[in-house]
Write a structure and sequence with these properties.
CATH topology: Metallo-beta-lactamase, Chain A
Structural class: alpha/beta
Helix content: 10-25%
Number of strands: 14
Shape: globular
Order of helices and strands: EEEHEHEHHEEEEEHEHEHEEH
CATH architecture: 4-Layer Sandwich
CATH superfamily: Ribonuclease Z/Hydroxyacylglutathione hydrolase-like
Strand content: 25-35%
Bound molecules: zinc ion
CATH class: Alpha Beta
Number of helices: 8
Length: 267
């Protein structure tokens, strides 16, 4: 895997920040980093691009970051804040089918929820041409030079996917990481993990739990995402350890190539 980059397209929780109707200091903040669209990332090598999740603001995110091509889409799970932008993948499947990877359950849900777009029997123009493809737990798919491995994690009572891509781990909407997946998150340069709020939540890591995973698997750098309006960017950044940062919409970070741990896993 050659060097590539990660762009945070969105770093907000399911409401997005500002929350509709809320007048709290974070929702009314003048710091641009406190405005958070729904969580999604763009990952690119020199010739290929993929996104993880397409929330309701995917169109705006694609326009803002001038995304002109996509080679694959990976879904973590089927909550609205992660899949409802799927219609706007039309633009990326004009010249050929777009490969979309998700767990078996999520593929089935997408087929039902978006049957008007995906069912070949429905007469409609302008439907996205998506090749819905099941990715199995711990299976690795190559997109250009990027090796993407699906890692089962728990989101409350649901098993969903985190992904490892080279020396990057992307773990959102997580309440628990099974031991086998913990092993796949060792030796990372960068771990992105959700930290919803300060106090516990049944289906998301709190700040304390996110920091616990970070210290347990020991990445070189970590970024917090899927943040609620309980966190002001600057204030949270100042209280974190030096290797842990608060992600914000538009932040671009380099992702290292294949490291020793990845070689061990894939060769
Ligand atoms: Zn979510
Ligand atoms: Zn608020
Ligand atoms: Zn969720």
């Amino acid at each position: 895997m050659t060097a590539c980059s990660l762009t945070f397209l969105g770093t907000g929780t399911s409401h997005g920040i500002p929350v509709i109707g809320c007048t709290c200091p974070v929702c009314t903040s003048s710091d641009e980093r406190d405005t958070r669209l729904r969580s999604s990332v763009l990952i690119e090598d020199e010739n290929h691009a993929l996104v993880i999740d397409t929330g309701p603001e995917f169109r705006l995110q694609a326009l803002k970051h001038k995304i002109a091509r996509l080679d694959a889409v990976f879904y973590t799970h089927d909550h609205a804040d992660h899949i409802n932008g799927i219609d706007d993948l039309r633009s990326f499947s004009r010249h050929g089918p777009l490969r979309v990877y998700a767990s078996r359950n999520v593929v089935e849900t997408i087929r039902v929820r978006f049957s008007y777009a995906l069912d070949a029997d429905v007469v409609a123009g302008g439907r996205p041409h998506l090749l819905l493809t099941v990715i199995k737990p711990y299976e690795t798919v190559a997109v250009g030079t990027m090796n993407v491995t699906a890692l089962p994690i728990l989101h409350g009572g649901d098993e969903i996917f985190a992904y490892r891509i080279g020396s990057l781990g992307y773990v959102t909407d997580c309440s628990e990481v099974p031991q086998k997946s913990v092993e796949y998150l060792r030796g990372l340069d960068t771990l992105v993990v959700d930290a919803l709020r300060r106090f516990p939540h049944p289906s998301h890591f709190s700040l304390f739990e996110a920091l616990g995973l970070i210290s347990h698997v020991g990445p070189k750098h970590a970024y917090l995402t899927h943040l609620s309006h309980g966190f002001a960017h600057q204030e949270l950044e100042e209280e974190l350890p030096p290797s842990v940062h608060v992600a914000y919409d538009g932040l671009v970070i380099p992702i290292g190539g294949e490291n020793e741990k990845e070689k061990e896993l894939y060769h």
